[in-house]
Batch of 4 targets.
Target 1
Amino acid sequence: MPLLLFVPVALIAACGLIYELIAGTLASYLLGDSVFQFSTVIGSYLFAMGVGSYLSRYIARGLVARFVSIELMVALVGGFSSAALFLAFAYTQGFRLILYALVMIIGVLVGLEIPLLMRILKSRLEFKELVAHVLTFDYLGALAASLLFPILLVPKLGMVRSAVLFGMINAAVALWSMFLFREQLGARVLLRAASVLVLATLGVGMAGAERITEAADNSLYADEVIFARDTRYQRLVLTKWKDDVRLFLNAHLQFSSRDEYRYHEALVHPGLASLAGARRVLVLGGGDGLAVREILKYPTVESITLVDLDPDMTRLFSTHVYLSTLNQHSLTNPRVHVINADAFPWLDQNTGSFDFVVVDFPDPTSYSLGKLYTTAFYRLLARHLSAQGLVVVQGTSPLFARQSYWCIVETLKQAGLRTYPYHVYVPSFGEWGFVLASLAPYEAPMRLPAGLRFLSVHDVPELFRFPNDMLPVDAEPNRLNDQVLVRYYERDWREIAH
Amino acid sequence: MSRAADTGARGSLETVRPRARTGRWTRRNFLGFALIGLAPKTQRAIIGGFADDGHGPGHALRDHSQFPSARRTMKIPVVIVGGGIAGLSAAWRLDKRGFRDFVLLEMHGQAGGNARWGENEITAYPWAAHYVPVPGKTTALVRELFEELGVLRNGVWDDRYLCFSPQERLFLHGRWQEGIEPAVGSTARDREDFSRFGDCIRQFRATGEFTIPMDLGAKPSQLDRLSIAAWLRQERFTSRYLYWYINYACRDDYGALAGDTSAWAGIHYFASRDPEEKGPLTWPEGNGWISRKLLAKLEHYVRTGTMAHRIRREGNRLQVSAGDTDYLADFVIFAAPSFLASHLSDDAPAIPNFVYSPWLTANITLDRLPRAQGMETAWDNVIYDSPALGYVVATHQSLRTHEDRSVWTFYWSLAEGPPAANRRLLLEYDWDWWKAAILADLERAHPDIRNCVSRIDILRLGHAMARPVVGFLESQERRNLINSRGNLLFANADLSGFSIFEEAQYRGIQAAERVLARLGR
Ligand SMILES: Cc1cc2nc3c(=O)[nH]c(=O)nc-3n(C[C@H](O)[C@H](O)[C@H](O)COP(=O)(O)OP(=O)(O)OC[C@H]3O[C@@H](n4cnc5c(N)ncnc54)[C@H](O)[C@@H]3O)c2cc1C
């Protein structure tokens, strides 16, 4: 019998802790700064529980009925807390307000539970027994919840469903208490109906969690998702927050419309402006048309060949109203030829030579992508370069992935090219690195196209200076049969994460 | 299959402990395995069949069936029997030395032997041999060939032919790890055993006895008196991972368990190679690429679909009967597996103690790829504790960053149990049975494999390769083949006691050189 009495104590303790953990986790997840979020969430939650405990003294009669209704309220508020927070984040401006309001409400309700329960039980047990048992089960429940949460709930169920599941447990405790204390309670048809209703509502919530998670997925990208598609090659997601549009490929940020001009001006102009009368340009990757937009600022350029793997990507950036405005309709310009092909074999099977080549591939996160950063690839590229021609390669971050960046430089050198490494600060990326490579010596441009927002002629030589924390480090060249870069890259970013 | 062999120590072997207790792949398991594989399951239709494996004509030879008599006789100074790497290399040498009066007879419709290949709408793929380790400085003949084929230019290996990263992965404890040396869950003792094994190998390498070709350095050795498994026990190695690894290497290279492989051969595998470059060399069609290149040069000497079925002495000459022709030759270079010779010729030495390992390979066409799990697909993909050897990906050397389809070559040396019994199994079980067994094996690592496969084509190789059993090094039978006087010369890789590209090439060229010398050229 005592076990039947005390198991609910452990269960409600677990529920209480889960809601607290969910609030803390979601706040860190969505707002960042996890130390701050967890401290404030836990603090306000504990304080609210104190308030609840204090308020319990004002409940004088009908203890069981009150307890049951409180359980049902916790079930509803707690059960849907996670969904509410996600949706609040996605669709309102007042996430913080709602967060702390929810934390306070749940805290007060949870604070009421244990005092009421102890009073209900006090007639059945001696006081010292009662306190010992209730607190023991309270702490046991908390332990179980704190272990279950990271190991099972978050990875397997996700936040929304975990909350709903524990809401259902609260509702079950309500039903169980009605049964246990049926003599004290008497026939309460309404309360029973309410419990069933709450349980059913949560059940529906469980089933609909998919939809809510989807909506929540939007908020993972922090901002409203305006476009999402799984293409044959990647997952393409566009988000918009006020005037800031961001493109994510497989969840890696590709650009933010607020500062992409820094990236693309730095990618194109130091090289292209230094070539007098470049006529044929090749862009590998860069299906967003933003580099092409910069290249079109040169009237001498007669043709631009853009080779990008993903037709969905180039189509989107040719037709989407906002995106084609952003790239100034570069992809539909008559000087531009869009080819959807895998760059390495394409280059291997084509003979054309180019005055300027932009190599703007995703970072070398896998051995497949790493092939595009090898001596073999760069040697092939060199064969497609006119005598005075230049290549520019996006080379990850010389600050966060220092060895990776210098490995790319070393690889270009091993392929027989002269290298001119430089870097630029792009707020949404941090410090970013590029490498100019050529057969003939390179000199910084004397003038740039008019109307650039970021670069000026005087600033260009500055880009080639590296501060101490980004200076060259030893790195092996990246080769097809020994892709050190993928390993460097993984290590570099893992170190950042720690 | 692979082995980059650059670590100086690699291999495998699960048969450490008393045999009965280690859950080895007994006949009973074998049958149980089949039942699991055959358990009815709703699945997509997978088509395919057995590839032409020459069992019919081969058995006709063994049974001395009647062959139609020849309609013409042709005098020709040299006949090469067998168009595998050994036969093709003999032809390459003769031709290169300006000697043009010879033919090469190949029983199959396609030459290449164990280095033959296939091709479908997705890619070319190997039927058996799929790589050549980057040859060291002393392996001069292989380097000469590769220079001629443009694989080696001015001392630099063409990086399109060096196996791309990642070379190997192993499915162990439910996940893929990089490399075949088991690392997941390895203990300090495992690592110590591996490093000590590496030290042993370095010492063996320093003796200069473990060369490629093996003939150049091999000396009578105590190591040929025990199995590699026994040697490991004798040296007090205890790591199960090391035993698995050495056993795997033996199954993979020799089609034999570590307990059935001479320690000398087991060590040769590791100690003979010290590559200057991270390899191995490989092509979509495996060593079929080399066969292809050689055939392009030598095509007009080669008569495919022509089985030599009788070799008879005619005065000073040998008469080789094949198809509708009797060739009257001064010399015959016998580059087909040597055990066949005694079925063709009364003069040929019988070699009853030669053991040949039976193998099965399958080319599996995938019109979509299984779900990725962790580590990317490598060139060579091995499943720990599988009775088979894993699979090699034919599209691995593609320059593309994205693949939707592929062909995997699945390797299975039937090493457990007597070779003759396994050869019977090869013929007894039908294609459905083998298909089910192969899918069941792959399913350990790829639960969704059945939804990806559209075809499985199976090649059964009853006498795939010579097995370097204990005592093979000083075997008198082997000596007899190598030193055979008269005008029947042997050339198959089995003269070395084990079958690798370099040995096949060396034996073929040796035979050609001897013929040229005897002809006074
Ligand atoms: C599954 C498998 C995988 C392998 N993988 C590798 C590898 O990756 N790397 C490596 O180096 N080695 C590998 N090998 C070893 C391979 O055997 C050698 O590399 C080499 O190809 C052997 O060549 P060979 O010419 O000596 O023999 P074979 O290739 O056996 O050639 C013998 C030829 O003779 C023909 N023949 C037989 N009888 C007659 C007859 N009566 N008349 C006419 N022709 C006849 C056969 O059809 C065949 O073409 C592998 C072997 C197998 C079985």
Note: The pocket of flavin-adenine dinucleotide is lined by residues B 1, 54, 81-87, 105-108, 113-115, 128-132, 307-308, 335-337, 340, 359, 361, 411, 461, 464-465, 492-493, 499-501, 504 (CB under 6 Å).
Target 2
Amino acid sequence: MAGAGAGTGRAVPPDTNAMSKDVSDRGSSAGAAGESGRVGRWIARLFRATAGFSGLSSDAPASSGWPWAAKWRVTSFGIFLGLAVTVVWAVTGAHYFWPGWIWFALALPLAFQGAIRRALRTNGRRALAMHAAVSLVVALAGIVIWLLSGHGYFWPIWPFLGLAIALAGHAWLVPMLPNNREQALRERVAVLTRTRRGALDVQAAEMQRLERDLHDGAQARLVSLGMSLGMADELLDIDPAEARRLLVDARIAAGDALADLRALVRGIHPPVLADRGLNGAIQALVLAVPIPVEATIDLPEARLALPVESAAYFAVAEALTNVVKHSEASTAWIQVHLADGKLSIVVGDDGIGGADPEQGTGLRGIERRLAAFDGTLRVSSPPGGPTLVTMEVPCEPSSQKTSPS
Amino acid sequence: MRAVIAEDLALLRDGLVRLLTAHDFDVVEAVEDGPSVLGALIGHRPDVAVIDVRLPPTFTNEGLLAAIEARRQVPGLPILVLSQYVEPLYARELLSDGAGGVGYLLKDRVMDVGQFVGAVRQVAAGGTVMDPEVVSRLLAKRVRDEPLGRLTTREREVLALMAEGRSNAAVASNMVVSEKAISKHIANIFVKLDLAPSDDDNRRVMAVLAYLNS
Ligand SMILES: Nc1ncnc2c1ncn2[C@@H]1O[C@H](COP(=O)(O)OP(=O)(O)OP(=O)(O)O)[C@@H](O)[C@H]1O
Ligand SMILES: [Mg+2]
């Protein structure tokens, strides 16, 4: 019995299958096959009218790979068959209700299919859910057989017992098995979905900020520069002194535009990072911190993957900015090393502590940015300090060399 | 005065050549990539070189590295390093040999032709020129420093101008005060920062930069 249900939606007699195929390519087929196909379609139409009979039709298309229409045909053919034998039974004298067996045989695959589909929809322990569903259907089948065969001694109690023990054993074993692969994959997909969205959000916001900065900054300054030059051009012969003043204005505007662009570039991809890699770039960051920072950097000659390098750089920059802004520390330290395919960075200070990522956007931003690389951020900052910001990112050195020489 | 130029963008390279030639420099070679720089510097031993930090083939900081290497081989070889951006870390590396005759400026500074040519001459003469942006970032870093905190606002302004490499006279004209007043400020600064006094402009500049860089 269990064997019959194993193939989800496939528990259909082969001849039915063949017929539904015939029906689907109408026109080419003729005679008997075409005839029954027409009947099938008619019943299908009838069924559609009295909708809601089974979950089969409503969500069939995607879940089991069966074409929706074929399933309809198979189902309606089953019902047609059941009705037909019932009519035969009634006409031949309505004695012992033998069509019950036919109905039973027709319903069984449906029951299996429904139960298994349900089980597949559960999150987590799918194997157990499947086991329970199949057991339930088998148990119900037992009861039906018992009923149909003239309910004498209630023998199904024995298979029940067997099924129950097997299920209990399974349920008892499951928590002891190592976290199953499926569950792990499911969680992985959830993490990837979330971090991908996070990364895209961050990127979109960055783009918007860039656009705005360019628009209000460099672009506006270049417009003003152009205006100054145009006016200077007009005044050159009439009022050389004023023209000269406008030229000076133009030069100032050009300088300001350049400064804006430099700031922008620094925010996208700091040149020192491009030049020197993470090692040099962190040293450059440390140079700008007003308190003594002890930097221990242990990185290979080879450059790290560029996106990781960049995320790590901005993470360190934010952590150091926080030290300067919030910590009131007298010294800070930073440790960077790459081991076992993992880049770990600790930024610590001996300040007042109490850092809380929920209180701002900086630390949360780092967290999101690192998460895109399966990286993590941990903050340990008891009141009174010290504050430790620990970041870890899986990472392999890339083949690129640090610098030419 | 013989000059070597290293700049990869033709537009800027030609501009620099024209600008220096117009101011009586003799541009003996203008190279456009990293590997040629060191050869040109060592080969010509120019009176001054103007070198872009970022050059092909890697477009990172090979101009800077070539400059440092050239000055290692020929101590004090006057080099003015230009860049689209300035980085205090690089300033520190350029200054670390303590030999003078070195400059580090944003390319923007070329727009003020008079001042730029002045800076090139100053480097050629063994002076030190530092971009105001580097200086302001060095100063920003030292906001919490005890000794610097003792300086008056005026003295801090003088300090900044001095760190850029200006002579007493230049500082005085910039601040529109007499040279004598500036001398007094400088003396005060040196006392407050506990630096050894010196009459030589360039020595003072280097002392101040060394102090800010420490
Ligand atoms: N090193 C630190 N020492 C003490 N408190 C800290 C430290 N770093 C962060 N904090 C506290 O944690 C909060 C959150 O920091 P976060 O960087 O997320 O935001 P922020 O710095 O306030 O703002 P921004 O969004 O500009 O970074 C800060 O407001 C600050 O109170
Ligand atoms: Mg912050």
Note: Chain A touches chain B at residues 251, 254-255, 258-259, 262, 265-266, 271-272, 274-276, 280, 283-284, 287-291, 403-405 (CB under 8 Å).
Target 3
Amino acid sequence: MTPFLELRDVKTHFPVEHGLVFRKRVGTVRAVDGVSLALRQGEILGLVGESGCGKSTLGRTILQLLPASEGTVVLGGRSLTALRGAELRSARADFQMIFQDPYASLNPRMTVFDTLAEAIRAHHAVPAGELPARVAALMEKVGLAPRYQRKYPHEFSGGQRQRIAIARALAVEPKLIVADEPVSALDVSIQAQIINLLAKLSREMGLTLVFISHDLSVVRHIADRIAVMYLGKIIELGPAAAVFDHPLHPYTQALVSAVPVPDPAREKLRQRVVLAGDPPSPLNPPSGCAFHPRCRFAVEACKATGPALEEISPGRDVACLRARELQAGS
Amino acid sequence: MPLLEVANLRAYFHTRNGIVRAVDGVSFSVEKGETLGIVGESGSGKSVTCYSLMGLIPKPPGRIESGTARFDGADLLTMGETELNQIRGKRIAMIFQDPMTSLNPYLRIEEQLIEPLLIHEKMPRAEAVKRAIRALEEVGVPDAARRIRSHPHEFSGGMRQRVMIAMALITQPDLLIADEPTTALDVTVQAQILDLIARLQRERGMAVIWISHDLGVVASFCQRVLVMYAGRVVESGRVEDIFARPLHPYNRALQRSIPALQGKGAELYTIPGLPPDVSKPLPACAFADRCEFAQPECRTDEVVLKEVEPGHASACVRVQRGELKL
Ligand SMILES: Nc1ncnc2c1ncn2[C@@H]1O[C@H](COP(=O)(O)OP(=O)(O)OP(=O)(O)O)[C@@H](O)[C@H]1O
Ligand SMILES: Nc1ncnc2c1ncn2[C@@H]1O[C@H](COP(=O)(O)OP(=O)(O)OP(=O)(O)O)[C@@H](O)[C@H]1O
Ligand code: SF4
Ligand code: SF4
Ligand SMILES: [Mg+2]
Ligand SMILES: [Mg+2]
């Protein structure tokens, strides 16, 4: 099977500069540092991990909103990293991003109708007479009443705005969507509605989805596979339910144990694996396994050798020197 | 006396498409040291409620139509701008849902963090910077001494949110209003921040109003909860009761929508129909169009929030009459 979306050793680095007039490069933030992944068409990949670990940067790099410093992104057999100018613009019809922050991504001077009509017409020739019906249909899809068409973004609540942003992304009928925290600002019922919608689009239309979220229970529900990132690298990859229910990497274990459960009685009894120490600085990452200063299983070897992502049982990839041993012991 | 007592708050927007009754008769109180959660439908008026308390709704088109909000005895809704300024940003701090409205993209984080210390506490600059670095460290920003010199765009979404939390806590407020404060945070950092806030509550008796769609966090962190729908409080009570024994059909439907409690990959439960348009006339119970238990009287009988069990109130007339067991 040839994958629909393939990342080969993708790196995205940001220079850190100092000085006002003569900017001097003083270091590099390795926001994404060697990510390889393959997704089949219609697959939903959940991308999780600590804040600042590079999820948004990876998402933007996939969609060519940020240039990759190294590596290639291949979509439907075509290398996106090689595209320039007009070619890239026309390829853009195939992929869309839903941003973490809908405030920043909507034009404050355009009504909902204008925003959606513009998106629909950007990539498809639609007769003006058909636009109102198309816009209304899009709005209903995301749970917004079409009567809101003439309103401006500031007249909406946070959750309503996120739904406008989602409707806009769906307007071009993209093949790939990178959704960055798409439902965090929504109440659970609308969250459920959007999740049902995205799942249906992937099932029925073959939409491929990279779903970035801190809400592990949402990711577990919607994703086929979960990729866990730590400091710019994928450290665990596997089927969603398996990773969530039986995490193998010590970091994933800590992450899963910290998920709050919506049950006050159970909350009081819960055991958390508390992560010792501070999140690492991406400017100056720890040697060897980047997780070692906070890992309760760390041994001397972890300080020296950075473990590679390896398949340790069918479909389960883990980057931990002690993964096999820990799996056997549990 | 509660630290904050809000009675009959109404905040409307007078727009060219009609009057949006964003907050329509909301009453609640917050005790010193307490954590009050506010949950509810997107667009139900949670943010506008808090903006109203802080005098931050845009006027026009916004207007406070009625109500009082007594903070330590003084009414926030009628006090003068100078008096309010002294309370706001010092004794009451707010973490906004929208990170970019409260962070200035052109200023280094450092300037933004120390500003309230220079203004409200007249602290010398060097000391303020030290305190700011410590505040960043407390919310888990690695390498704080260096990163305090960055601009907001150099931070990830979650890191920006931590900066806002640090900014809100830096003046040691008596009341913290947090609007979706941890949506961009991973669960381990979230746990760390919840611990930090809980500690400040124990040590200094800080009260917290916590608006969130994350019912897991609300369950673990809040003592009492308000459930809002269409600008009104439809249920309120102790957190255990809100989750274990819903007394309003909207709250019950909300609980049923939680993905964690449903089978993987299954079609998730959603509430049928669309959220109500609060600029149009609504039935007496605004949930009636979507409620599976609705009866004709629900559209006409006067709806008021009433205590149904000790400390647990509902605005459902059928529950109040004892006709419904949810
Ligand atoms: N400036 C404004 N002009 C007109 N209407 C507004 C304005 N600000 C908010 N509204 C409306 O007021 C209502 C309440 O909005 P609010 O932001 O309080 O919702 P919320 O409960 O915080 O929702 P969310 O969970 O999505 O953040 C919504 O119907 C919204 O569209
Ligand atoms: N324009 C930039 N310049 C410098 N550093 C940046 C820039 N954008 C991101 N970074 C850094 O790159 C790292 C990864 O950021 P990214 O936004 O991808 O994180 P994230 O995983 O999406 O986090 P969050 O969950 O908080 O949104 C962070 O350390 C961030 O500070
Ligand atoms: S390699 Fe070592 S430090 Fe890293 S996760 Fe595994 S045991 Fe922990
Ligand atoms: S009052 Fe009637 S319509 Fe409203 S929630 Fe109760 S049963 Fe449903
Ligand atoms: Mg991000
Ligand atoms: Mg809000």
Note: Residues A 154-160, 187; B 13, 15, 20, 22, 42-48, 58, 61, 97, 278 surround adenosine-5'-triphosphate (ligand 1) (CB under 6 Å).
Target 4
Amino acid sequence: MSLIQLSKNQSLHAALLLPVTNSVGAHLRRHFSSTETDTRTLTIETSVPYTGHKLEPPSRSVETTQKELLTFFREMSLMRRMEIAADSLYKAKLIRGFCHLYDGQEAVAVGMEAAITKKDNVITAYRDHCIYLARGGTLVGAFAELMGRRDGCSKGKGGSMHFYKKDSGFYGGHGIVGAQTPLGCGLAFAQKYLKEEHVTFTLYGDGAANQGQLFEALNMAALWDLPVILVCENNHYGMGTAEWRAAKSPAYYKRGDYVPGLKVDGMDVLAVKQACKFAKEHVLKNGPIILEMDTYRYHGHSMSDPGSTYRTRDEISGIRQERDPIERVRKLILSHDFATEKELKDTEKEVRKEVDDAIAQAKESPMPDPSELFTNVFVKGLGADAFGVDRKEIRTVLP
Amino acid sequence: MASDVTRRIGIVGGTAWRWRGARRMSTSTSTSTSSAAKTKSSSGSTKKEVNLFTAINQALHIALDTDPRAYVFGEDVSFGGVFRCTIGLAERFGKNRVFNTPLCEQGIVGFAIGLAAMGNRAISEIQFADYIYPAFDQIVNEAAKFRYRSGNQFNCGGLTIRAPYGAVGHGGHYHSQSPEAFFCHVPGVKVVIPRGPQQAKGLLLSCIRDPNPTLFFEPKSLYRLAVEEVPENDYMLPLSLAEVIREGRDITLVGWGAQLSAMEEACKEAEKDGISCELIDLRTLLPWDKETVEASVKKTGRLLVSHEAPVTGGFGAEIAASVAERCFLRLEAPVARICGLDTPFPLVFEPFYLPNKNKILDAIKSTVKSSRSCVFARQQNIWLALMHPFCPHKQKQPVTGLIESGRPDSGPTVQPAPSADHPVQQ
Ligand SMILES: Cc1ncc(C[n+]2csc(CCOP(=O)(O)OP(=O)(O)O)c2C)c(N)n1
Ligand SMILES: [Mg+2]
């Protein structure tokens, strides 16, 4: 969607007084693309200081702009809305398979993306919807994939756990916990070889941090000075197991031993941005680093987990009240008078509509052709025929 | 059937042979739970209708209760596990014997092998069979060969690995796989798959108490779905002993686990067409009961094997090959394999992938009909028939639900053995 440019003399105030247009999303973008103040930098202190392991942490002062904050607000709200919608679609049985939601952790995806380019790689586990969106994926691509439709980002063949976006270096969602971590090293090795100064962000959870593969990956990465950032998204639970029950040391940023680490408030999008920028520079010069993102998932582990048996409701609501990544940005915007409460509410309404429209569009998308069952197993199709429950003949077209 | 179960209690130490004859005679024509309900246990033990996860839970309670050296552990097991199989165990037996592990399958199994090597019963859970692969090395290289390579000084016979396997309707790539065939290629481990609650309890207790490392794959789709009367007491069912769960004359069907219910339905449908099917639950896949299968195929002259795992290299291939070796002259039709397709387990295409009732039924019909219609086969045997120029088998194998062929219209692909006359193509 292109930005709507306003004439120069039209003041921000006047623009805001205009009736809300039908053009979705135009409102907010118009708002910040039209003023001179929107790109003026300001410095904001991170919520808590960084803690370093074998490195000097970056400064707590993060530069940002009005535009950036409004973008962050919008993007995180969009992600949250998408996940909540996915929850309902799952309950309506329109989404099948296993589905893991990211709400609560949005600042990690958004902050990371703000610090890197689409030439950098990102690889993650199955909690991948929002990373895909951050990497430039579309809502329709996401919802269609969730519902197993042809227009999904993996042609409907992957589902919730397997979103990919090759053109922006998103190596996607992986189902086996921890398995993506050595893959990230391979990606980074290839990047190093190309000497193009790009890096790979390899995401894994606190549960995955106990898999042996991570330590194999860390050793290789350090041994060969690979430009890989190992991002531990510490949401404090691996399914129903609290970190302290599963890990002798839940200080994940230190667990690389000889690999330097940084502990980051993963609920503070600006802190994440700064840390990822720092990490990218670091790995290009010195080899791998661990970023531990202290974050939280509001939903249960997956759709079959109510998420309330192994933690208290107070814990969840406490985090929502005190650390919510969207609320933090909302407060920043309001305190700097970058937008009014109503404008932010309007943004949320727009986002809602965008999501609803995308769902409607995704629902229109047909199921993949049954012959797709046999494609992509090998380069050439398998050349097999089968029929389904209804005994209708399905023929494949051989490549 | 149920009387058999109760009769077997406590005498599992006896050889499998002793029970085979008795079991066959007492086996009625179906797996139905009603036969269990009707039979009163001679030992006076009570029975209750329970589902599969409860039956497994009972077995674990008994295992821990009867052996102070038994331990249960795995990801989230002290909370009951994702399928509730371990519910109540930690409360009852304490966190020193029932505990959560970190998320590290290779570590879990390696740890279990060590624990078992000290003479304990290490009952470990892998949350889904799909996640057993990180532990593959430990199972194949450590567990299976420990006894052999140490000249019987060490073993990990107390090791049991439980893992839920199979399709659930919408599990997708990593919550649906059936990896049993990988492990059937590993001398030194036993592979056991129960078909329902009653079987699960007895077989699991046998696995736990068996002096060899065992893999116990549980049909996860049946955890809640399958409800059956299960004796409340401690009983074991013999390993490496198949069970004829439906007797028939025209064709033998061999399967295991959840697949048996699709096969049973197909048998019932086939009966309406006058085809009498014999259905065998293999129960233990390694080492498997060739004799029961052989005896059945010799009687019926036909075999169909069915499993959810992909057809190529599946355990059905092993059964087909063994039957070809042992019953070749008695076979009246080629062995039919109705299995999962040779694709990753799909998310949206599950109904196409699965070897469902219709696919099995069609294969039963075509296997039986093609050989019935073949006068040559009826009069002599398939081997002589095949040599006759007019035998229909000569040109075509019976068409089953799944046609596997590189070229759709060219009939079945036959790979000739390489020889000077027939160099391997491509
Ligand atoms: C090898 C393997 N074992 C177990 C699982 C089942 N499983 C899926 S997610 C998960 C918990 C992972 O927790 P964590 O790494 O903290 O990631 P989070 O879900 O919190 O994002 C488990 C045990 C799996 N997918 N793969
Ligand atoms: Mg976690």
Note: DSSP finds 13 helices and 13 strands in chain A.
